[in-house]
Design brief:
Elements lengths: L1 H41 L5 H42 L2 E2 L6 H14 L5 E5 L6 E4 L7 E5 H6 L2 H16 L2 H29 L16 H44 L2 H11 L10 H5 L19 H12 L19 H6 L51
Parallel strand pairs: 2-4
Antiparallel strand pairs: 1-2, 3-4
Length: about 400
C-alpha cells in the first residue's frame, strides 16, 4: 500500500508541475491577447493577418518583461503571503504553554516521522477547519480553528493535523500557493481589461492605422479573438488551480491514515467537519487550502475539494475504515451556564457551614476561638495548676 501511495504522490507531483508550466503559458497567452487587443484598438484600418503579426512582435518584445514581472509578483507573495493570510484570518502563533494538547499531538507526529515541525497557529472561529501555508521549512505553519480544537477528540484532531502535515510533506502547500499567485496575475489582468473595455467603452481607430483595402472587419475580428483568449485563459487558470487542490485531498487523507494508523479517526473528523467549515471573511484562495471547502460551483467544475462522501468512501474502500454516518454536534453551552460562571458565584453560607476564611475547629477544641496548630498544648495538673511540662510554668 505504501508503494502505491508514494507512486500516486510522485505521479501527482509531475502532473502538478506540468499544470504550473501551463499556468505560465496562460500568462503569455494573456499577454498576446492584450497586445492583439491594443493593436486592434489603435489600428484605423488593418487586416486580421497584419494585426496578428503585430501582436506576435509585441509578445516577443514583452516576453522577458512579463516573465520578470511574474517572478517579482511571486517573490512578493513568497515574502508576505503568510502575513496577508494571518491578517485575513486572524490566526496567531501559539506555544506549548498556550495549547499543550494540540502542540504535543503535532510534535509527536513530527518526531516519529523525522519531519521538521511547522509553526502552530490558532484562529478564533466557530467553524471547524484547518489549513497549512508556507513555501519553505521556515515558513510552514498549520492553522486550526478554536472550534475544531474544542469539538474534536485527540484521535480526530491528530488525524486532521496529519492531513495538513501530509500537504506540507508532499509539497502541496508550496505548489498551491504558487498556483494561486500565478492565477492571481491572470485574474487581475483579465478583470482590468474587461473593466476598461465595458466601463470605459470601446473606441476603435487611432492615429497609426494601416490601410490595406480590407476594411475594418479585421479589427472587429481581432477584438473578438483577443477577448475570447482572455476569457479562456482566465477560465483555465481557475480550473487548473482548483484541480491542483482537488486531486491532493485524497492523498492527504491517505497520508493522515499512514501517520496515525487510524482511518476511523480521519473519517470521524471529516463527518464532524462536514457542513461546518465555512470561514467567515476568508477569501476563496484561503478556503482552497482548508481541510474542507464547502463552497462549490457549477456541476462540481469549480469545486476545490472532493465531496466529504467521496473522500470517506475512498477511506472505507482503500484503508478499511468504518463510516459512522453524519454526526450531530451539540451546541456550545451558553456563557451563564459555563464553568466560568460557576466559579464566579459567591460561596454558600449557613448555620452549619463555616465562613470560607475561617478554618473548621477540630473535634473537642470547643469555643469560638480558632484552632492554632502552632500553639503548644497546655500541661494541666490534677490541681488545676500548670504541670511540670507546661511551657508557662515558672520554676
Amino acid at each position: 500500500m505504501a508503494y502505491g501511495l508514494y507512486t500516486h504522490i510522485q505521479s501527482n507531483r509531475r502532473r502538478s508541475i506540468a499544470l504550473l508550466i501551463g499556468l505560465f503559458f496562460l500568462v503569455y497567452l494573456m499577454t498576446f491577447a492584450g497586445a492583439l487587443l491594443a493593436e486592434a484598438l489603435l489600428a484605423g484600418d488593418a487586416s486580421l493577418e497584419w494585426l496578428l503579426r503585430a501582436a506576435w512582435r509585441d509578445l516577443m518584445y514583452a516576453l522577458p518583461w512579463v516573465t520578470i514581472g511574474t517572478l517579482i509578483w511571486m517573490a512578493i507573495a513568497y515574502r508576505f503571503h503568510q502575513s496577508m493570510i494571518d491578517a485575513l484570518t486572524g490566526g496567531h502563533e501559539v506555544t506549548r504553554q498556550e495549547q499543550p494538547r494540540v502542540y504535543n499531538l503535532l510534535e509527536n507526529m513530527c518526531i516519529s516521522r523525522g519531519i521538521t515541525m511547522p509553526k502552530l497557529k490558532l484562529m478564533e472561529s466557530p467553524a471547524l477547519n484547518a489549513f497549512a501555508t508556507g513555501l519553505n521549512e521556515r515558513q510552514y505553519s498549520i492553522t486550526v480553528t478554536s472550534a475544531l480544537v474544542d469539538r474534536l477528540d485527540d484521535k480526530e484532531l491528530e488525524a486532521v493535523l496529519g492531513h495538513e502535515l501530509t500537504h506540507i510533506r508532499n509539497g502541496d502547500v508550496r505548489m498551491l500557493v504558487i498556483a494561486v499567485v500565478i492565477a492571481g496575475v491572470i485574474s487581475f489582468f483579465a478583470e482590468m481589461v474587461f473593466r476598461v473595455l465595458f466601463q470605459g467603452g470601446i473606441r476603435l481607430g487611432g492615429g497609426r492605422g494601416r490601410s490595406d483595402g480590407k476594411g475594418s472587419g479585421g479589427v472587429f475580428l481581432a477584438i473578438v479573438i483577443a477577448l475570447v483568449a482572455i476569457a479562456v485563459a482566465w477560465l483555465l487558470s481557475i480550473v487548473i488551480r482548483f484541480a491542483l487542490s482537488r486531486k491532493r485531498e485524497y492523498l492527504a487523507d491517505a497520508g493522515a491514515v499512514e501517520l496515525t494508523k487510524n482511518p476511523d479517526a480521519m473519517i470521524s473528523a471529516l463527518r464532524k467537519i462536514e457542513g461546518r467549515g465555512e470561514l467567515e471573511g476568508a477569501t476563496s484562495a484561503v478556503m482552497e487550502m482548508c481541510v474542507d471547502n464547502p463552497r462549490s460551483g457549477i456541476a462540481d467544475l469549480f469545486a476545490t475539494h472532493p465531496s466529504i462522501e467521496s473522500r470517506i468512501d475512498a477511506l472505507v474502500r482503500h484503508a478499511g475504515g468504518h463510516d459512522p454516518g453524519p454526526i450531530a454536534l451539540p451546541e456550545p453551552a451558553p456563557l451563564d451556564q459555563s464553568a466560568d460562571a460557576e466559579t464566579d458565584r459567591p460561596p454558600p453560607t449557613g448555620p452549619d457551614i463555616p465562613p470560607p476564611d475561617r478554618p473548621t475547629p477540630p473535634a473537642g477544641a470547643g469555643g469560638d476561638k480558632p484552632f492554632l496548630p502552632s500553639q503548644p498544648p497546655l500541661d494541666i495538673g490534677p490541681s488545676g495548676q500548670p504541670g511540670p511540662w507546661d511551657p508557662t510554668r515558672r520554676n
